[in-house]
UniProtKB/TrEMBL annotation:
Its main location: membrane. It is an enzyme of class 2 (transferase). Pfam families: DHHC. It comes from Coptis chinensis. InterPro entries: Palmitoyltrfase_DHHC, PFA4/ZDH16/20/ERF2-like. It is found in: Endomembrane system. The DHHC domain is required for palmitoyltransferase activity. This is S-acyltransferase. PANTHER family: PALMITOYLTRANSFERASE APP, ZINC FINGER DHHC DOMAIN CONTAINING PROTEIN. One of its GO terms (cellular component) is Golgi apparatus.
Amino acid sequence: MEKRVYQVWKGNNKFLFGGRLIFGPDARSLLISILLILVPVVIFCALVARHLRHEFEAYYAGNAISVLAVALTIWVLALLLVASARDPGIIPRASHPPEEFYNESSASAEGGGRQTPSVPFSRTKEVVVNGTAVRVKYCDTCMVYRPPRCSHCSICNNCVERFDHHCPWVGQCIGLRNYRYFFLFISSSTILCIYVFAMSALYIKIIMDDEQGTVWRAMKKSPASVVVMAYCFICLWFVGGLTGFHLYLMSTNQTTYENFRYRVNSRANIYNLGCLNNLMEVFCTKIKPSRNNFRAFAPETLQRPPMVLNHEPEVDDTGGEKRAKVEDDLEIGGDILKISQRHNFDKVSEAMDVRSRGSSETHNDISDPNFSLGSHQQVRAR
Ligand SMILES: [Zn+2]
Ligand SMILES: [Zn+2]
């Protein structure tokens, strides 16, 4: 029987509804995240907001507090699900290494080499991004040259474009196609935290005024408010801190991965287009369509068991053992940094003729689907 792409998928993802939704392997943690949001809101609505209904002269003002809390929660959960269930920007795996590998392998075969992965082929390439040469690496697992800013997630076992990090709370990689929703999720969660905290504090204040007692007596009267406030206070450090950190990352056009690995400063960061343009890039550009059609019927080679694949004559055993290894491109960004710091403007000036810094075409060029297939367009083999 013909199988679909998601049924023969080599990454560690989980699929739902016949491949319509894609999650990370740790998608179960998503349920915990949902409960961590839902339970405190239910407690707040049932034990705090319910009493606040009678505290305002206008009947609707009291009700509005609960309604707003529920609406915000639905919004937060929807963003969480969207960030979690969509393709984060996975680069489809190639079924064989790029053609040039074979060429280079045969060329060096003259020198006594074999046509195997041990033959030193070009594992890096230089591409020009915003007028600066950037070295990109070949991924043994996915058998593609990774576009700049792409990284292989060891949890999902996929190369992901503009890889930010793998979020255990969302249970998915955060990358090119879901970063916007991820940021809206954490920032909306921050607002929800502040709102629930403030309304619980308001209730404590109302009890204090009504009973003319101390804050301790008021807290004793409504322990639910205290629990909810304490919970929101702790969460606020987490989601609020994360929101602040990502605001900084977005305004300087860095990913979490780049920031943690290389501490790219804004001067050396070749992707920085200025604060406003960086924010526009995250929020106002059209999100690229997925490169994967999980529901399409898989090409036949993918449906064969891997053991058989290794013995196929047309599939060169190039990459046999190496392919199994999960490669992380820890050094790439370092290279980017070194390259950009080197200010290698000789090479740059040639490139500047065709592209200006920050032009949108540059982004299209580097994300050209041909790129991952080893196209020589704007790519120089090293
Ligand atoms: Zn990969
Ligand atoms: Zn991942």
